[in-house]
Design a protein that fits this description.
The structure is a homodimer. By secondary structure, chain A is an alpha/beta fold. Chain A has a domain at 436-541: GMP Synthetase, Chain A, domain 3 (2-Layer Sandwich), CATH 3.30.300. Chain A is built from 15 helices and 28 strands. In chain A, strands 2-1-11-10-12-13-14-15 form an eight-stranded mixed beta sheet, sandwiched between helices. Chain A is globular. The N and C termini of chain A lie far apart (69 Å). In chain A, 53% of the residues are buried. Chains A, B: InterPro entries: AMP-bd_C (IPR025110), AMP-bd_C_sf (IPR045851), AMP-binding_CS (IPR020845), AMP-dep_synth/lig_dom (IPR000873), ANL_N_sf (IPR042099), ATP-dep_AMP-bd_enzyme (IPR050237). Chains A, B: It comes from Amycolatopsis cynarae. Chains A, B: This is Long-chain fatty acid--CoA ligase. Chains A, B: Residues 31-397 form the AMP-dependent synthetase/ligase domain.
Chain lengths: 542, 542
Amino acid sequence: MLSTMQDGHLSISTLLRHGSKVHATSTITTWTGSGTRRETFAQLGAHAAKLANALRSLGVTGDQRVGTFMWNNAEHMAAYCAIPAMGAVLHTLNIRLFPEQLTFVANHAEDQVIIVDGTLVPLLAPHLAEMKTVRHVIVANGDAMALEAPAGIEVHSYDELLAGQPDTFDWPEVDERSAAAMCYTSGTTGDPKGVAYSHRSIWLHSMQVCMTDSMRLAESDKALAIVPMFHAMSWGLPYAALMIGASLVMPDRFLQPGPIAEILAAEKPTFAAAVPTIWQGLLQHLDANPQDISHLREVVVGGSAAPPSMMHAFEERYGVPILHAWGMTETSPLGSVARPPADATGERRWQYRYTQGRFPASVSARLIGDSGKELPWDSESVGELEVQGPWIAASYYGGSDIDPEKFHEGWLRTGDVGKISSDGFLTLTDRAKDVIKSGGEWISSVDLENTVMSHPAVAEAAVIGVPDEKWDERPLVAVVVRHGQQITASELREYLSDKVAKWQLPEHWTFIDEVPKTSVGKFDKKRLRALNLEGKLDITHF
Amino acid sequence: MLSTMQDGHLSISTLLRHGSKVHATSTITTWTGSGTRRETFAQLGAHAAKLANALRSLGVTGDQRVGTFMWNNAEHMAAYCAIPAMGAVLHTLNIRLFPEQLTFVANHAEDQVIIVDGTLVPLLAPHLAEMKTVRHVIVANGDAMALEAPAGIEVHSYDELLAGQPDTFDWPEVDERSAAAMCYTSGTTGDPKGVAYSHRSIWLHSMQVCMTDSMRLAESDKALAIVPMFHAMSWGLPYAALMIGASLVMPDRFLQPGPIAEILAAEKPTFAAAVPTIWQGLLQHLDANPQDISHLREVVVGGSAAPPSMMHAFEERYGVPILHAWGMTETSPLGSVARPPADATGERRWQYRYTQGRFPASVSARLIGDSGKELPWDSESVGELEVQGPWIAASYYGGSDIDPEKFHEGWLRTGDVGKISSDGFLTLTDRAKDVIKSGGEWISSVDLENTVMSHPAVAEAAVIGVPDEKWDERPLVAVVVRHGQQITASELREYLSDKVAKWQLPEHWTFIDEVPKTSVGKFDKKRLRALNLEGKLDITHF
């Protein structure tokens, strides 16, 4: 029996209409380096309409892809609104991709137009010749004349192109399951893989961001979106802000601790979102240059695990609670949020807050063990996390033959390994591909790394599994010694001896100058493994 | 271009699985008159599975309808979960319907089974013989033996039927657009009309209830659901509580001010929901029997307009803010919620809070004037409210020929008349059918009634339009004088003269013993108009 309820409605055009009308006076503030420029949501509505008209005038039609190569600013926000609302697909290009990845994703998505920030032109320009479908480049916040494009690509000034365009647009109806926006993941293996979010998934995800037990975004908020708009949709903040009327503060390219502190002082946001390295940098800056940041009701940290020491420092020294969250590009990205149960107090409350968080109703989770069997939620059983839900990817863009291993039985295999408590809190211990399978037990490379890095003489440490006849795999620790310090493998092994289980104690150690990194700054263990296979590491064995 | 996102997931079975696992320790507490009985969400999961198995054993299959004729209690909550999760459709029968309406809705929905609370058996039993599709009646919380059912209907004891049933159930996959639950509206014209909520609409509505700028329901809440589960799904609280892990307190049949005060003292809920008459009654009780109720972070009031004096009394005397909201059975029911913008303070804040509230992104609204043209949101233009959204009815159950006037161009005509501010706050002034159209202007019958009722000698006043040759319509005021008081039409007209615009001043007055009421206690203006047409009112004309 069919319901009698209305269908449709879940679309970026509805969101834009709502935000620009009901929350007309909410604002998007963009930092200029020395001050701000401000646009109301009513102006954003007109701005987005002008951009949509401009893109139509360049021939953008149907569900063609329009790329952005931009910082977080008002123009990027207009692109977030205009492109999906006109029925096209927003493709946020990650400015930190390696050149070959960048051309790959632009070609794979078949971008027709790219909007680029003036300051990012030098990063993009050298690769335009290899972007086979791009016909137009629009330079925002900078000088279009400075870009010499290859033949076949027209260059436009954003301001000139939009000037004179009508400030209304007849936004078409779209199917809620059609793609609204795309983002490619930059894994360490193979080509980047595209995730295409739907109008529906973005709508549901935005509601989640505004739920009290999630990020709690409200009309009363002024949200500083530090996490880039080219990185998992800035964790959903732009669309959620439009939904609820929260004002947005955009740092543009000023992501260093000093400018962030300046933005905090000038705009006094109530909420902010960024990866741990940003908060670590800000913490050091604040410790050296004290400043009241208690206007922040909460800041959300994800992307990688937030160190407990940092969580305590922000809360105890600055009165700002850190909300730990987990997600990935394939999960839109909101997967879990570490808001403790109401009855957890004191140390128990902190233990909940250190976790990657609790699963909301829209994200079903299960743990799969080595044998492929589902594991219990007992805070002990360790397996690979699989998730399911309306804002979780079912496949990668381009067909089900792209990395089919990531999806099975309707679940996304996250590649993350961890355990879940009986009340649905996730604790991650490793990436599935990095976990070390030793004698039927799993050793977390991340736990070992953190323990080694807790030694004051160690700057960085990366752990990989190496083949072992008896145990299948055993850990190899690659250590970067802190500048001016000295330490031996024996001393580190001794240091670890009372900190990890005896059977986890690594036998293989090497000292390197630097841990190889991926384009987004994560440890590149693939390269480390390659160096080992090529015999380029000088290893001490115990 | 299709997105790569997963589909499905939005279903009551997902909700039940989530709530009973992730929020296993949250509770449903049912008031027994002298104390409580408590069930955890984990127990609710098992309870619902037993009920689903029991219903299957009675032959309930596919999308058959199962009726409930129950108070708010743990058994009704199990029915809310089990019936939609097993793929059947929950039909909440309003115990306050007139007998002919009750048999009409049971027959129209083709209910196969009815679950009835023992104390409500006397209300249901006399009508069972006319309910043509009912095959089984299950008596909960009472003596099944006391019910003598007509031939063809089997009577079961709820407890005996569930005893021994398995406490797990293989919940089937359902299409999210299929019906999960039904509710009939009891209008004053024609037969009741059915609204069939979908799994999808309930899911989205539950998310809205948990949004910070909506009802703000959270895991930390203990919500007292006074609004009946047979009345617009108890405003979505049961499903939203399951989604977020909020504990529920159910008053069962104890809805009088004394017992409600007892429940508040015993359970100290943080949140509550009820119509204004309940709060008015509680207020009088509390004023006579003072009690600390500041454990309530907020209470939501809807169903009809909350008098400002009551809102002030609760906030200023008891420290409990009243959140005013508007909705109807056809809107699931959350339409708008009066949470003021963050920058509104003092008197301006109160002015926002008196309104029916602001439209969320999932509810689009427009005002249609007399000429059928859309009116601006300028806080002045008065028209009929039309709404659109994923939890708004597109038609009534039974086909598009049932009251087609209520729906046009994809919008629901609410039958409510009012104005909207530029920032999306709704102020209702009347029901469309009650508004008085005088010389091209609209006179609000509700405003006139409230003004007349502000006179201390007036107990009740109802205003209807009567035909007028010159002005089309003019108001007729029917007054019920307060016991022991005396007042004349001239005196009331004089009293009004400096309170309403001159052209609104009523010329026609009548005194009656009582305003006729509908089954849900609203003024029955249809009957008042009939009395007038039949010449049964003694009217003073000026």
